[in-house]
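User: I'm putting together notes for a lab meeting next week and I want to include a structural view of one of the chains we've been expressing. I don't have a solved structure, so I'd like a prediction I can at least talk through. The sequence is below, exactly as it appears in our construct file.
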Amino acid sequence: MKGLSIKQLCLAASTLVASLGLSSAANADLLEEIKQRGEIVIATEARYAPFELLEDGKITGYHQDMLVEILADLPGVKLKQLDLPFQGIMAGLTAKRYDFVVTSLTITKARAAKYNFTYPTSTASVAVLKRKGDERIVQPQDMAGKVLGIQAGAPQVEVAKEYEQSVVIPEKGEGYKDIKLFTDYNEAYSALASRRVDAVPQALSNLAPIVKERGDLFEIVQPAFGPATYYAWAGRDDAESESLVAFFSEGIEKLQQSGKLDELQMKWFGFTMEVPQGMVPAPVN
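Assistant: Thanks for the context. Below is the predicted structure for the 285-residue chain, given as structure tokens.
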């Protein structure tokens, strides 16, 4: 350094610091950081039975059982789980308020552009709920001429409208009589029971507990209709988070291959669901 001015020395020092910082950032690995700190922070919206729900103040459900099984492969790491409103949960992930999101996320193009999805945990494809014994509806196309009940703002609204234009009208010669929108799906189910609507399109996996609890009143019309969609978990879409997302995807695949996933699906849904293995399905609109 002999012969260098103070200004040159400062510049050299700042360049060295910057290069070290870049090297550190390039080598950052969230999974390793979690192992070192001994804690993983996960965000969940525990209001979506049977995937995530609260029982006696504790988060439980299908996804929670999966999470416990997978985290067994991180010995010495404590789980810190936050129950948060769904509306801001992905923004909090982007802001790095937590490491990962374990909740029911439909794999959509808009989300896939911002976040890194795991392998799917279940189907999110839409099926039809009807009153038990209603022989007017034996397949999804039979919703022609019927009144549908759907939660306002739910993706099932657009799925049902697209299905009406692409399948129902061409095959049946008429569309739905009406689509009534409700504040939430519980109101739609009540309307179905009281004959104010004829059918409720909803994700097949979410209809399972309704039929399980009220099989005397409701039944599911299969197959599902519309595009094949799936629920998954998500991490940030950056190099630092790749290892953590891969860890959870590998854990999901391990549960599939061992048969444990089928066991948990029978426990929480009463049936098993085929989902792609070893891959993240193409996102839907």
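A couple of points you could mention at the meeting. Residues 30-123+229-268 form a domain with the D-Maltodextrin-Binding Protein; domain 2 fold (CATH 3.40.190.10). DSSP finds ten helices and 13 strands in the chain.

User: Perfect, that's what I needed.
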